[in-house]
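Tutorial handout. Part one gives the primary structure; part two gives the three-dimensional structure as tokens.
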Amino acid sequence: MIYTNTRSSFPDQVVPQEEKMSLEYGLMVARAIEGQWFSQGLGGDRYAFNYNIFHQRRLYARGEQSIQKYKDELSINGDLSYLNLDWKPVPVIPKFVDIVVNGMSEKIYDVKAFSQDPASQKLRTDYATRIHKDIKTRAYMDKVQSALGMDIADAKGIDNVPVNEQELEIHMQLDYKQSIELAEEELISNTLSKNKYHLTRRRFIKDLVTLGIGAVKTSFNKAEGIVVDYVDPANLVWSYTEDPNFEDIYYVGEVKSISIPELKKEFPQLTNKELEEIQKFPGNTNYVRNWEGQNNNNTVQVLYFEYKTYADQVFKIKYTDQGLEKAIEKPDFFNPPPNDNFKRVSRSIEVLYHGAKILGHPIMLQWEVAENMTRPFSNTSKVNMNYQLCAPSMYKGRIESLVERMIGFADMIQLTSLKLQQVLSRTVPDGVFLDVDGLAEVDLGNGTNYNPQEALNMYFQTGSIVGRSMTQDGDLNHGKVPIQELNSSSGQSKIQALITTYQYYLQMIRDVTGLNEARDGSMPNEDSLVGLQKLAAAASNTATKHILQASLYLTLRACENISLRVADCIQFDLLRESLINSISLFNVKTLEEIHNLHLYDFGIYLEIEPDEEEKALLEQNIQMALQTQTINLEDAIDIREIKNLMLANQLLKLKRKKKADQDRVNQQQMIKAQADANAEAAERAAMAEVQKNQAIAETTLQIEQGKGQIVIQKLQTEGEIKKQLMEIQFGYDQQLKQMEVQQAQVKEKEIEDRKDKRTELQASQQSKMIQQRQTDGPPVNFGGDDEVGFGEMMQSFAPQ
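Part two.
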């Protein structure tokens, strides 16, 4: 069996870079790490110690801890044959672990990128300067807009120009965002989403609760791009540190169990002979750490680690004939004699090496300078490790966890539960005591025997007992009450005592962890007010806030490494196109910025949502402002969307001030409008009076004109009527005259006609008379003739 030297130490770092890059140097580093963590000397196996401690805490967190200690506590000389108990552990700790983990697993942050390179700072300063100029010239711009209808503001419309410097400051923090910052934020969010970071985050939050330490790893490869992986702290090794954030460690690594085929695939330089030697090497047995403690001959334990050292960057500064300086990079051993044409300058920078070694085996699998090292743009001499670790409750290298605080009380709860099972199994029902001698002295008088069976039947059916106070001999009968109830409920007090003990240890868990009833899902006290319950829940959140801050720290460091590695992705066409395609659906503008992403430097921060208590205080202020009508509903909606509580309060104050100014302006405008309205009303009244008088005059004139026209029309009408009457009368007169003339003519004619007829009649009669005389005839009767003549005369008057 081959072991590394337990007294080995890390190699000297003050050596040339070429020597540090040698495989022998890497092997010395790997052996030093192996000696610190896997040594079997007096200090023990540090890796095995951590692994066992973490394994024990995880078992308690799952409610699967070993029950042997409880059996040893209850057994007598190792004998458990008389105990028929349910040995399954009471899952008390898993409940509290789930409460904390589930309460912190939700995303309560937004990743924000702040460009801090000189070019971005200049753009931000220029924009703020232009807006500040708009603030100073706002009155002039209002006049130009009212006179010419032109908006000459540099901002997006004159209505969007801040009123003062305070509003400008809030505007720069809330609304101003450069396109490159949006591109960076989308790239980080896309990378986290692609790697299913929400699942990784939940796992290391559970590690922080259970183990007291959490870890995450960011790496880069050409096939997958940026990769964010969960790291099991039980497999980690790191240099000694007292920093909870592990920022001063100089090496960190993890142990992975890899099969022989996977080993060959990952390290193709291994020969078959070396693989055979590795496969036969029995040292693997000492490094297997699975929960069964069994060995698997098909796998080997490989230590992957990162080692931070320094390197000298040497430059030769050459002076040209034109007076210019030209920098030429040289190896660190470059040290020429002084010369007037050039000089040597150098600086020390941190360098990260990647290594891989089979535990317990002298072969070194990998040792090389890390490619695509993540260096902050603000300090390029520093380098970030790919592993991010955090142990918020670490002291002197010892890591404490929330589960560890509960283990002792959880053991007592388990023992109390087992004792309670014992008491319950031994508890018997209440019985009765029967005095047979007392029954012998009793005579029922009906010929039946009062035997014990008859007495019990009567007692159980009626509850009555028959007895005698005196014996037949007249002596005092000590068995006068032959049946007495036996109260065997002594186990009830034991059960109550055990339940009280159980509640005591459960309350102790709440006390030492801060997870009170207001948070652990228990029924709250019915006498507690809602406000007190909220305060209790807030106090419980405060007790575990260090775990939340540790998870946010790991997230922030992962986002910083992603931000620095994005520039590496841009260098490869396939990865760049993958990034472009992943965000093209959301923001096309960012596509123009990605190609120049490597020129920018970003500060990454998390915008945290306020907790419930802070939200309640902010909402109370908002509701008070709404009730007093010092802000509008739209302002309240904008304020609620801000996660930064300080900015939200500043915006609330600014909105209230703007609302007050606007109300003052509105009131002045209302007063002016009222005065204008009153003046306009008076003017309208005067104009109405003038118009009324004018209308009356016009109406009177129109009436008079109407009257004149009526008179004229009347006279004209009367004239027309008279004219018509005269014409009618003239016609009538003319007709009458004509009728009179006609009548006169007719009369004259008739007279003439009568005269002619009389003359003719006289002539006829005269003739007849002459004839009669001549003939001497009889007298002539002129009556008939007269009648005939009268008839003819009447015919003359008949209508023609």
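Part three, for discussion. The mean pLDDT is 77. Residues 3 and 588 are 59 Å apart (CA to CA).
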